[in-house]
């Protein structure tokens, strides 16, 4: 009998590690391959940054409450976020779609409107793609290309002891937006006459349906001549991403619960839903904020930027990765981020 | 009531034309966008060529008779073929996959073995990707990057009157391979005790399951200092591709049936299946040969290459696109290539 190992047992990152363990590099121009937000290839002076993402209906989005225009916008933005997370500027995308025959041209046009809106806002060009049918559901694959000056790209694996741990914007809102949308969907399915009550939740719902990529943070850091020592975007949840940086940089960290930025609207919605705002920030995902580490001497340069919060610091690996709670308890950080395989 | 236009009515190319009709270019480095085998972007001297393809289970492949290793190999090769079709050299790929939980790690490993075999053979690097679950079926998205010296890339839109119409290798075999695999599948489904009779059909089945991209033709042309005036790869069938070149170059053509290269094994299998070998070559698809046009003065340089056949010539657009049959009849060429939307 053939051996059978379930993918669930490995999770996405274990799976990628396993499948790429024997990977060989053929081209001298390949500077950074699998294992970061994006790959880096050398092109005669400047470097090209490449990232790709796949979004699958029923796994990553629910068309019952996701307007197609927003979906097109988000499909682009989540890829651009990976390019910014390398400290690079996105320039081009390709887009491949598979969809079943329940999609009309009008529906696809709406999707593309969102794609073009994102291209326009972030000044990137859609340069190619593929469209085909699927047996079931809508599948979106975007590859983004960007550019960065030589040696200016920032990896996940280069955080150093004593560095400040920083995050942009606020966290947890996208997850809370998803939670309320899912709740209203269930209510609607049980009784189609009840109108959804979403008016007060525009902030969190907006963060879920139409996220933005933090090009402003990249511009700010460049303007202040700050090179983060490590960086990635927050797509799976803060705790999962912090553990990636710690593992790949071979360091530990201390994170302060009270420093984690959570929007007032998120806090209120969390309360209403009976959820812990900190748990939403740590494990929610889809915030597309930037998580990065800085040398301590750069601290003065960021204090006036209200969009950047210092949430902790990097320690020696032997000290592990911990969170200090508001009640001054110390807990080990565990990855409970979003996992498509569970 | 909302308007609803069926995608079927447009076909893939009509759909792409419609969806990209208002496309705007933001980056000066975007040299060639949507509408060819690949896009071209400028990177400080050399140019980067980008192509992407999506393969969907049940639409593009049937796992009942497609070994996963072959599928991985083919998923890479069909993208590299698009890069070669630009007269460029592929250097990197990204790979995104969605699969349901019926796939084990062993199955995925087999698929990746094929991916790596193709990367190894064509000297390209897998630099990134995404893996996720699907509700149903296996979806593969590959983006390939390549490089080409400035102004050496070859488009579809630049064929000129009087140019020779050429094709590499032979045509129709991949379609015939698919046909026999589908027939044996039906026989097996009706009576699982009957063993498939495929031994004599290794050539055609090989062309279907494990195609190769024609890097040898690109090397040969470069060695002889021949720049094709237009080029594309044959993925949808010869007639469909010829019409693309005619439409985009605003020219007509004459194609000679007797000049279309068909392998002896293909001819025999076509006979056995009661199919016309020429129809298989014209409409079959998936041959991944190169279709290109040359200046007449380059004719002497290619006569000794048995892998290149001159199959016709380019005319004024007003003369249309025609095939001269063995019986010396003249017919208009119509696109009956493979269409995922039908």
Automatic annotation (TrEMBL), chains A, B:
Keyword flag Nucleotide-binding: yes
Binding-site residues, ATP: 112, 129-130, 156, 235
Protein name: Thiamine-monophosphate kinase
Note: Reaction mechanism of ThiL seems to utilize a direct, inline transfer of the gamma-phosphate of ATP to TMP rather than a phosphorylated enzyme intermediate.
Family affiliation: Belongs to the thiamine-monophosphate kinase family.
Organism domain of life: Bacteria
Binding locations of Mg(2+) 4: 37, 51, 82
Species per Swiss-Prot/TrEMBL record: Chitinophaga cymbidii
Occurrences of domain PurM-like N-terminal (ranges): 35-148
EC number(s) per entry: 2.7.4.16
One BP annotation, GO: thiamine biosynthetic process
Protein function: Catalyzes the ATP-dependent phosphorylation of thiamine-monophosphate (TMP) to form thiamine-pyrophosphate (TPP), the active form of vitamin B1.
Catalytic activity reported: thiamine phosphate + ATP = thiamine diphosphate + ADP
Binding site for Mg(2+) 1: 52-53, 130
Keyword field: ATP-binding, Kinase, Magnesium, Metal-binding, Nucleotide-binding, Thiamine biosynthesis, Transferase
Gene Ontology molecular function terms on file: ATP binding; magnesium ion binding; thiamine-phosphate kinase activity
PurM-like C-terminal domain residues: 162-321
Binding site for Mg(2+) 3: 37, 82, 233
Organismal lineage: Bacteria, Pseudomonadati, Bacteroidota, Chitinophagia, Chitinophagales
Amino-acid positions noted as binding Mg(2+) 2 in the UniProt annotation, renumbered to this chain: 53, 82
Residues involved in substrate binding: 60, 286, 338
């Amino acid at each position: 009998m053939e051996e059978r190992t379930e993918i669930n047992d490995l999770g996405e990152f274990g799976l990628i590690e396993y499948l790429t363990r024997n990977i060989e590099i053929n081209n001298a121009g390949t500077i950074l391959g699998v294992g970061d937000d994006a790959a880096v290839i050398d092109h005669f002076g400047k470097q090209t940054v490449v990232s790709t993402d796949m979004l699958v209906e029923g796994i990553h989005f629910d068309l019952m409450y996701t307007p197609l225009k927003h979906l097109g916008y988000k499909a682009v933005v989540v890829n651009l976020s990976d390019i910014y997370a390398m400290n690079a500027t996105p320039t081009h995308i390709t887009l491949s779609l598979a969809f079943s025959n329940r999609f009309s041209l009008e529906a696809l046009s709406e999707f593309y409107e969102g794609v073009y809106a994102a291209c326009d806002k972030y000044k990137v060009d859609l340069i190619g793609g593929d469209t085909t049918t699927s047996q079931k559901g809508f599948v979106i694959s975007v590859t983004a290309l960007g550019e960065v000056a030589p040696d200016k790209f920032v990896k996940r694996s280069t955080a150093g002891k004593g560095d400040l741990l920083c995050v942009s914007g606020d966290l947890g809102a996208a997850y809370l937006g998803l939670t309320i949308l899912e709740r209203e969907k269930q209510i609607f399915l049980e009784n189609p006459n009840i109108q959804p009550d979403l008016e007060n939740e525009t902030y969190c719902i907006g963060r879920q349906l139409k996220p933005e990529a933090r090009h402003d943070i990249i511009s700010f850091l460049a303007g202040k001549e700050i090179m983060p020592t490590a960086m990635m975007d927050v797509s799976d949840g803060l705790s999962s991403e912090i553990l990636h940086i710690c593992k790949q940089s071979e360091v530990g960290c201390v994170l302060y619960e009270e420093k984690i930025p959570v929007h007032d609207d998120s806090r209120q919605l969390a309360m209403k839903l009976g959820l812990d705002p900190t748990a939403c920030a740590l494990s929610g995902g889809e915030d597309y904020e930037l998580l990065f580490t800085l040398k301590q001497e750069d601290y003065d340069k960021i204090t006036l930027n209200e969009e950047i919060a210092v949430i902790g610091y990097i320690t020696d690996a032997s000290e592990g990765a911990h969170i200090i709670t508001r009640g001054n308890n110390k807990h080990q950080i565990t990855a409970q981020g979003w996992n498509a395989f569970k």
